[in-house]
Write a structure and sequence with these properties.
mainly alpha; two-stranded antiparallel sheet; 50% helix
Length: 208
């Protein structure tokens, strides 16, 4: 079944339009279902400014539907899923505001560590930090239509399972340090820098 938004039987006169390349000003022609176009003058890729990427946050067929997604769209997709998961977690923790605040703080710290370390599976790490106090994290992720790879990665992190790849090890190290730094924020106490597994974690501890 074709997504109605991409089915040209429902298109009107505005289905084809022109925009100026933000890099060089050259005119680019877009069909409404084009996710991006390459400028023939400067070669830069330009995102379709009119396309609605909202469904890409949860649809498992987004890439097949929209084509190979550029980094800007992939980042938007991950941010949308993180927001969606945060809302779902908040609903699960109604009446337990302190737990949600703690999870949100841990997620904020984890995101900073991921960006500084430039390694690991950021999406899985952030999901795991949000799900720290949820009894059935895998079920919640499945309800939000997360793919199996994401669910398995988050389950490994939360269960502290032995990493099998360099990426899994990096994710585990960042998750560990984010949780430790969160505990220090919530209940300050003396900790040895040797407790941290990443350089960014140690730096954040010094700042703390």
């Amino acid at each position: 079944m074709q997504c109605p938004g991409q089915d040209n039987r429902y298109w009107d006169g505005e289905a084809v339009f022109e925009v100026s390349c933000p890099h060089c000003g050259n005119k680019l022609e877009f069909f409404k279902d084009d996710s991006q176009r390459s400028c023939k003058k400067c070669g830069n890729r330009v995102l379709n400014p009119r396309i609605d990427f909202g469904c890409a946050a949860y649809c498992s067929h987004a890439e097949q539907c929209l084509g190979a997604m550029p980094p800007e769209l992939l980042a938007k997709q991950k941010n949308l899923f993180k927001d969606k998961l945060s809302l779902a977690v908040r609903k699960r923790l109604v009446g337990r505001d302190e737990l949600f605040k703690k999870a949100s703080l841990c997620t904020e710290i984890a995101e900073k560590l991921c960006k500084k370390e430039q390694r690991g599976d950021m999406a899985a790490v952030l999901a795991a930090t949000l799900l720290l106090d949820i009894n059935t994290p895998g079920i919640l992720l499945a309800e939000l239509k997360a793919d199996l790879k994401m669910i398995e990665a988050v389950t490994r992190l939360l269960g502290q399972q032995r990493p099998h790849t360099d990426e899994e090890q990096a994710s585990a190290d960042i998750f560990h340090d984010a949780c430790l730094l969160t505990e220090l924020h919530v209940a300050p106490q003396q900790k040895s820098e040797a407790s941290f597994k990443t350089a960014s974690g140690s730096e954040a501890y010094k700042e703390l």
